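Example pasted here:
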Amino acid sequence: MIHPTAIVHPQAKIGANVEIGAYTLVGEHVEIGDDCRIGPHAVITGHTRIGRGNRIFQFVSLGEEPQDKKYAGEPTRLEIGDHNTIREFCTFNTGTVQDKGVTRIGNHNWIMAYVHIAHDCAVGDHTIFANNASLAGHVEVADYAILGGFTGVHQFCRVGAHVITGIASVVRQDIPPFITASGNPAAPHGLNAEGLKRRGFSTEALAALKRAYKTLYKSGLGMNEAADAIAQEAAKQPELQPLADFLRLPGRGIVR
């Protein structure tokens, strides 16, 4: 299942039933799990571990050195989970020792063409990145987030679960869970209500999230007071807990 023109280092670990296309390069420290399909002209290098059932298209670059001037050749890593789709010309870099030393992508993500995921990023499960979305270093993107095409996320920002961003959004601060954000700079525009309905959130849960949104953005409360009020509501409505937890963590401040 390996094309004769592909160059696969003899020390690379290749699982069962893996397809590797023409002219693809697989480096010495690469591990590829079972049932992966890798297209032609891909470069997979560095200390990169790829799980099982991934579909990786042509011309991607996975595991290359981070674009960080402080990087000095340390053996940092890229880890990709299971059943991801990674389309053409995507570039995912390894981590840096200034952070945890690893860039992580979870499971069941749909990552479209020309997406860049920089060093030390952490991407959860079931996300969608539309074409040309880009994460700077140290960004966290939680489960079920959707980044619109050409969305750019500033380094050290967090994007919460079930967030959706509009096309060409510039994210310079954290986006709390469940929110629709767009613009330059990105600003909140209500709940991602349609996405939440599709994922099975009940009418009661949606109502609670709408109240929490008003508390956070419409009540006139300070950040700490709003976070306290949402935390109290989360004790009665568990669907609010991811939002309450997010607001308690340090970050770059939230989009306003």
Q: What stands out?
A: The first strand starts at residue 7 and ends at 8. Residues 7-138 form a domain with the UDP N-Acetylglucosamine Acyltransferase; domain 1 fold (CATH 2.160.10.10).
